[in-house]
């Protein structure tokens, strides 16, 4: 038995190390299959996603290391794409001519705030709390139902291979009194989501 990993972020997005560092570490740990999945660019600037202009270098660097280490490890190139209802066509256009081994689809943002920005569910707690108050009147259960509604839409749309961190809402949701992942309402939501992922033949990571 050996380890594989397909969800990793190098210095082309918010990762802390270069591709080479990750590859050498993976080889040292006897990992046989390793995939890079930098955060794909969004229609607005962030500090944690790749720039569209960086993709050619991302691809070239990967191909160089894939050839260099071909006798020691199997390397794969992917992207982690954000599902956002307003921007699916723009993301599809970006991906159209990209040569990739796989795609991860995840949700880091939900609905739009009054300032025109999107509510991040993966940023600092203060931003999460502010958005919860504005969009859901502090109702964490309503926000959680909305999150899994969007997850369901993402799965229905398809076009990817792996569902990323489907429980991301728990990162900050667990700090609220009305949220408990052991309660039946949450178990039903996550259970239905797992079943849908299975029915679509997708990988959960």
Description:
This protein folds into two domains: 1-103, Alpha-Beta Barrel (TIM Barrel); 107-205, no CATH class. Helix 5 (140-157) packs parallel to helix 7. It is α/β, with parallel strands linked by helices. It starts with a strand and ends with a strand. The chain is globular, with a radius of gyration of 18 Å. Strand 3, helix 3 (88-95) and strand 4 (102-106) form a beta-alpha-beta unit. It has helices at residues 19-28, 55-68, 88-95, 125-136, 140-157, 170-173, 184-199, and strands at 4-5, 33-39, 74-82, 102-106, 109-112, 118-120, 162-163, 203-204.
Chart the SSEs and their pairings.
Layout: E1 4-5, H1 19-28, E2 33-39, H2 55-68, E3 74-82, H3 88-95, E4 102-106, E5 109-112, E6 118-120, H4 125-136, H5 140-157, E7 162-163, H6 170-173, H7 184-199, E8 203-204
Parallel strand pairs: 1-2, 2-3, 3-4, 4-7, 7-8
Antiparallel strand pairs: 5-6
